[in-house]
Amino acid sequence: MLVDPRSDPHRLPVWDPHTNRNDIMPIISPVFPCKNIRADASASTLRDMIYHFKCGYEQCKLIKVNNNWRDLFMPYKFFEEYIRYVHIDLTADTEQKLELWKKIGESELLVLISKIEAGRGQLICHICPTEHLSSDSCSFFIGLSTKKLIVGRAIPEQVPSDVINEFMRRMENHKRAGMEVQVGCLNQTYMKSRTWGRSAMPLIQ
């Protein structure tokens, strides 16, 4: 930061590095009062950004040699990057309900990711950056990877069922008439084909 956040005489909340020391990736707004616009960032978000910054840096070094900028702007092949995915599908019978359902899903998704990454399985979550939205449904995709294998500790390939069940319970508490939620565990083969129907989606029990 160029300057430290100043206190607000109107007593509006101002971001403080001492009070908000648990913020993982603080990005402080340049307007007053100062706020962390990425207070919801997770450890996986930070790891993901660092990884792509490094990839971009390496690509720029190659561009300096071969003067080819095309590779820098290649689309990110999210559905080919991971072996296993979690698919959350939200449906509603009106656009207004779907908009509300989507906001609830986004909020609960952050809780789900924190629960997955806090588990003993050493799983890391990566949310698909592309929005998948239609007139009656909204889908979220989470790519799963693992941290380095710790000797003597097995890393599970799937998200623990109790974590998914807790997520479903939380969503059920928010659900209104005409709203539905499904959670599925998909592998890379499914993601590449993208031909499954909603009823055929393999659910996590």
Relevant terms:
single chain; 205 residues; alpha+beta; Alpha-Beta Plaits; 2 domains; five-stranded antiparallel beta sheet; 4 helices; 17% strand; globular; disordered C terminus; EC 2.7.7.19; polynucleotide adenylyltransferase; mRNA processing; nucleus
Q: Radius of gyration, Cα only, in angstroms?
A: 20 Å
Give the name of the CATH superfamily of the largest domain: Poly(A) polymerase predicted RNA binding domain
Major β-sheet, in short? 5 strands, antiparallel
What is the arithmetic mean of pLDDT? 78
Strand percentage, roughly?
A: 15-25%
Instruction: Enter the CATH topology name of the largest domain.
Output: Alpha-Beta Plaits
Secondary structure: helix percent? 25-40%
Shape label: globular
Structural class computed from helices and strand pairing: alpha+beta
Would you report the number of β strands? Answer: 5
What's the N-to-C terminus distance?
Answer: 47 Å
Count of helical stretches? 4
User: Could you state the order of secondary-structure elements as H and E?
Assistant: HEHEEEHEH
Text of the CATH class of the largest domain: Alpha Beta
Please give the domain count: 2
In CATH, the architecture of the largest domain is 2-Layer Sandwich
Uncertain parts: 149-156, 195-205
Pfam families: PAP_central (PF04928)
GO molecular function: ATP binding; poly(A) RNA polymerase activity; RNA binding
InterPro entries: NuclTrfase_I-like_C (IPR011068), PolA_pol_cen_dom (IPR007012)
Protein name: polynucleotide adenylyltransferase
